[in-house]
Amino acid sequence: MDRYEIRVVGHLDQRRARSLGCEDLRLLPGGDSLLIFRAVDQAALYGLLTRLRDAGLGLIAAERMPVSAESVNDGPRTTEPSKESSGVAD
Fold first, then answer.
1. CATH code of the domain covering residue 13
2. 42-52 per-position pLDDT tens digit
3. How far apart are CA 15 and CA 45, in angstroms?
């Protein structure tokens, strides 16, 4: 799931941000708002942008943010060498 930071014109209140599906809201000093969203795919992102448009919010910027290392599940880790690297046959 991708994380997006979307900057819009004006300060929003928490209730309105939640109704748009916002995970986090930051009010910026210049009078704008930074909304944090998660979207599972491009279709979900486009739906989110449509909701912002329908709410009459002016879009300034949208940026996909890298996923943090702790939220990525690579599976179990091991310190044992693989059979291929150790030259051991089955």
1. 3.30.70.980
2. 899 999 999 99
3. 21
